[in-house]
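The records we work with from here on pair a chain with its fold. These numbers are not coordinates but entries in a learned vocabulary of local backbone shapes. To see the layout at work, look at the sequence and tokens printed below.
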Amino acid sequence: MIVKKIEELAGNEILARALISWDYQIILPEGAAIRQEYIDKLTDLGIKEVCVCEEEEGIRESLILKTDIESSVKEKVREILEKHTYKHSGDLEELSRTADNIISNILQEERVVEKVYDIKQRNADLYEHSTSICSLAILTALKMKLSSESIHDIGVACLLHDIGLRYQTYDFSDRDLDEMSEHEVSEYKKHPIYGYSALKEESWLSDISKNIILKHHERINGSGYPLKTRDISLECRIVGVCDAFDERICGIGCKRIKVYEAIEYLKFHRDKKFDGRVVDVFLHFTAVYPVGTHVLTNEGEIGVVVGQNRDFQDRPILRIIQDRDGGDVKKEIIKDLVKVQNLFIEKVVS
């Protein structure tokens, strides 16, 4: 464990001790990754230094896009889409290059198609959501060996898929559809049409991308919207799975849920609403318990996830931080659930 000043943080350091406010509220728990966007907030709270794990102790978080790249892409998407919404700017074509930048950065990662990635629950943000499903869908398409043209079209469509929500004034964050009025639900379900209508004349945008924007909420059993069609391309099926997962962990048009719950949702609707081939590929690289998650084991211990195991997405590596009697663990105890076969995760704890 080492002490670092806030200005020395680069992002993704792991807290060795929980951050506690003056009134004893936990700001960030022990084992949490200090994401780049947290650093300014910690400064605003008057926090000057934190205790973080030394590199060899640290949590091995695996991200599809590096934090700084993801942040810059999100801001670029925000800038372009907000300008388009209010001024009908011609700058939308720049998102084609942004999608290529994401593809390039994913391909630069060593052994990219073999890793298990940590995808975390977060607050609703349309621009972060669009960036996230762009990387998720590109990675899924790469693993399914789609052509480079199809992967590009998927990437561009993901960055634009929810542009129709920019034309609506209702708050759809962290709300299930059955909590909304009939009019709100009707409007929400029209957002693919609004998006498609706004972009259908864009000559630089492929028909595949336009089709994804229109049909990303359609389902293979015809239960989706706005068209209730079963005629869904593979590219659109890929985006549909990634979108359904990500909107649930950030709460867009639904209540925000934990990652493992979103995974169970996809498993339950495999071959019902979603193409089973796509679901299987997606779940093969998605960690059930992302790094930093606190879990209760069947032995009554509390552990924090510090790493993942390839091919065993639900059997991560834990650092035990609390014993079965509720006492803090002083020495480092690492338990790899692939190697300790009689140890199981009972539930996620806050």
